[in-house]
Structures are given as structure tokens and as C-alpha cells.
Amino acid sequence: MLFSGPHSALQSVSTIVVIKVGSAVLAPQGELDVRAVAALASDIAQACAASRDATGLPLRPVLVSSGAIASGFRALGLQTPPKTIVLKQAAAAVGQARLMAAWGKAFAKHGLTTAQVLLTADDLDHRTRHLNARNTLCALLDQGVIPIINENDSVSFAEIKLGDNDRLSALVAGLVSASRLIILSTAQGLYSDFATKGVGSPIVPVVTSLSQARALVTNSTSGVGTGGFGAKLDAIAIAAAAGVPATIAGGAVPRVVSRLLAGEQLGTHFPLSTRRVGARKRWIALASRSKGTLVIDAGAARAILRKGASLLPSGIRHVEGTFTRGATVDVREESSPGAIARGRVAYDASEVRRIAGHRSKDIASLLGYVYRDEVIHRDDLTLLPADADQEKP
Predict the structure, then answer these.
(1) Backbone φ and ψ of 186, nearest 5°
(2) Among 3.40.50.1240, 3.40.50.720, 1.10.510.10, 2.30.130.10, what is the CATH number of 290-383?
(3) Where are the domains of the chain?
(4) Distance of alpha carbon 328 from alpha carbon 314, whole angstroms
(5) What tens digit of pLDDT does each residue of 274-330 get?
(6) What is the pTM of this model?
(7) Angle made by CA atoms 284, 289, 295, in degrees to the nearest 5
(8) d(Cα 276, Cα 198) in Å, to the nearest integer?
(9) In whole angstroms, what is the distance from residue 27 CA to residue 33 CA?
(10) Contacts of 202 (CB under 8 A, 6+ apart)
């Protein structure tokens, strides 16, 4: 089923909510709209107060805020958003300061303290830095501080970029074990007939199939944003794999955050649809970037999908890419275009090529040594969400 009727109020098991705000919401004309910032800060502060009154537990919001480049490019004398990496980095350096100053001032009026956290893909790709980021965010939340997160656009380049803040918000939601992800956009939700009727078509209230939802969207972006609605659905898939339900709603809707958290039907809700896996496997599947692909036969694929088996060398048919021992790689069945799993390899690419198709007992004679019998042990292997478009670095 693609969607159902209005959902009942969500009963959160955690007080952490990740809220992503798009550039077009905060800087619709390429100029930071301080009124929009103030309205959202007031809304989040109201939601925090309502949570304390209702449950006695504080709501702990994490804000993923776009808008640095959109807030800064005009200060460089540019009339349109920059296209080159260098100018994007320069605009981000100018705009990020303005963005954080506006958020800090807006939240301070409500007695709330903010902290800036800038991340790159490398911060989430390396396990130690991934855990350090989690520890920092949890420490801030424990102190009642609102982390305001953005991709570190002033130093990021193509090879290390996370891609867009929709994806970043979903990764952060998994990182902090959030109870909910709210993506605020110029879109009011998922439109049921955007292709022919546009924003005048009804909003789909609840989606239960991402693959069917993708058929309803286009990937057009706003003039100041980086991701279209397809990118938002990719983020929803990441959040679902982390066990985090998500909502896409209009960022300009009055009191949108507090109304959503009170259980009101706004936008499109994507309920939890996949089983929650452990933090390490979640990192392998979603945050760690793939460095290559192991193409396997149908028997190995069935063993992995149905039995949770390890990947043995006998099931490997081809090796794509160059990677080192311990790298993260995709696992793809030879008759299918998409990866079914992702894992950390016990051998480098050249070693896997030499042992591919052979039995584990032959590894010693082929290589002269054995690290382990499995190319990827099942403890280092995790299935990928069937509805997710696989990320490529």
C-alpha cells in the first residue's frame, strides 16, 4: 500500500528529534530571512516547553540547518548561487557565520543555547571520528544545548561531500538514535499528482512504500537548494534503516514543529518500515562509504539474504575497484544491478581476486597466509534497505 489515512499521534520512546531545515525555507531569495529563523526558533522552543509540561521530560532537538551558501553568496557580489567549488566554499565561509549568528540570537530569546557542529563525509566514514561525533552531540544534548549541524562546505570537495543536508539529517538521526526525523521544505509534503497538477494536488498523508513514492516525484530543486524530492526520499530510506520514522512538511507552516510533535497531521509521514540494526552495522550500511564491489553468485546471495551467512571466497565471481583490507565494499548478486549488502572486507582487492571462486581451505595455498576463512564475516556484513538508492562516493 502506498499510503493510508491520517496517522495517530506518535508516542516517542526517546526525546531526541532531528529537524532539518532547507535553504529555500531560510534564504528563499538568496538572503537569510531572519524572520523565518526567528519563527522556527520560537516554534522549537514552544515544542520544548510543551514536552516538559506534558511528560516532564525535555525535548532534545537537533537542528540540521542548510543555508550557509545561500546566505553568503550575495555578500561576494554574486547575483546567483555559485557553480564552482571554490566559490561555493567561499560563500559558505561567509554565510555560515551569518547563519549561526541568526540561530544563536533567535534561540537566546527563549533562554536556549546553541552550538555549531560542522561535519564532512570523512567524519562519518571513519569509525573513530563517527563515534567522536556521536559523543560530542550526546554531550551537548545532555547539557540542554541545541546542536546546529551543517556540512562543512567551506572545506568539503566532491570526494568528501555528504551530498546534501537531507542525507546528513538522516545519518545524524541514526547517529543520535533519534525518535523522529522532521524534514522542513518548501514542499508541503509528497504531492499525489505533482506531474500534472503540481502543488495543487493533494498531499499523501502516510507513505508505506518508498519505491511507489519515487514514481510520484521529480528531482527538480529550488533555486538555492541542492537536493530535490528524490534526495529527500533517499534520506527517508536511510532513516528507516536506522529505525527512525520521518516526516516531510512545509517549513513555512505556522508552528509546524510543535504541531507535528503534538500529533497533528501535517505533511507526509513515513513510519518505521525496516528492522533496527545495531549501531556498528548501521554505520557500515549507511555512513561508511563503499570503496568497491564484490559480485557474487546466486547461491551466495541467497545465503546472505535468507540465512544471514558470511561471504566466503567460493561465492565471489568478480571484484570491482581497488580497496584495502578493512575497507567497506558493496556486495552485488551478478544478475542484479543493485547492491544487496555492504560489509568490511578481511582482504584487499588484489587478494580477493586471487581467492575468488575458491574454497576457504585453499586460501593458505593461494596467498601463503590466512587472515580469516571469510572474505566478509557476517558480523561485519549488513543488508541494505531494498527501497534505498545506493549511495556511490
Answers:
(1) -70, -25
(2) 2.30.130.10
(3) 6-280, 290-383
(4) 20
(5) 555 666 777 777 766 788 999 999 999 999 999 999 999 999 999 999 999 988 899
(6) 0.76
(7) 80
(8) 35
(9) 5
(10) 191, 192, 193
